[in-house]
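Dear colleague,

Thank you for sharing your sequence with our group. We've completed the structure prediction you requested, and as agreed, I am returning the results in plain text so they can be pasted directly into your records. Please verify that the sequence below matches your submission; if there's any discrepancy, let me know and we will rerun it promptly.
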Amino acid sequence: MRVLVLGGTWFLGKGIVEEALRRGWDVTTFNRGRSGQDVPGARPVRGDRTVGADLHRLADEGPWDAVIDTSSSELPPRDVRLAAQALREATSRWVHVSTVSVYAGWPHRTLTEASDVLECPSDADASFGYTGADGSPTKYGFQKAGGERAVAEAFDGRAVFLRPGVILGPGEYVGRLPWWLNRAHRGGPVLVPAPGDRLIQPVDVRDVAAFAVDQAAAVTSGAYNVAHPEGITFGDFLHACFTVTEADAHPVWAEPEVLAEHEVRQWTELPLWRTHTGVWSVNAGRAVAAGLRCRPLTETIADTWTWLRGDGRPVDHPRWAEHGLAPEKEAKILAALPSSTN
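Please find the predicted structure tokens below.
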């Protein structure tokens, strides 16, 4: 099996390359060589996927049995289309890493692959779309929906779309799980969003990588929601963070209304917390039926802490700085809570 990975040097892309090599596949990667390190055993090709000449030079390196695109998250649809059109004669199949944000109903409603997708043309530039007043839909979602359309037009019936929500695990560059682990490690009272029995559905990067590689070798097409089918409660998530860090810490639960009064931003200041009813209500049954297997999230948490405490060096990314509650703001909120809450 010959596969081309667009990206391939960090987090999910790196995991996909490692998984494909583990299976004995011939792996080519294509990137600018600016983020992360090449995985030993893969054949790197340097270039910019937004430059037509670079893409046509890449196509001459083929053919491949499949392309797995992990590097389009920051690109407008027209640049996704440029790559898809340049490579469509050089491969039989395209596996496209998209996002659950493409759904018009996210994060308000339970989602299946039959749910409506946002409308965005395949030739849209970075200006297309908007973010709603309550944070949904998002301009990002419109852009990713346009990227899916660009691939579908170029690979009629030969494309797979993976729509994950939140991906966690060793190598994470966004900083969601690392923030909670580092906060737990500091100890003391930890401000956390109630209720503790709320289920969340993040998925391990290694499980997403394995499923992406499976789909590269499959013959089916269409979309798959990629989320943890069982999930984990927020209470159990925090308990696992406290346990693996051996922290002298305890949770202080605050109701959403209290956090709103203190202008705590959902999704970023307290990572993984969002009150919309559908944000963690993603049906992954089709992916599970197609072979998605998700390890317990307690294993993801433990392995991420091991990575952070070892030689873990996240790729420098601006989203890391967006996540986490400033210590002084947390202390101020804790001090304002009734003593019975602590």
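Summary note from our side: The longest helix spans residues 139-154.

Kind regards,
the structure core
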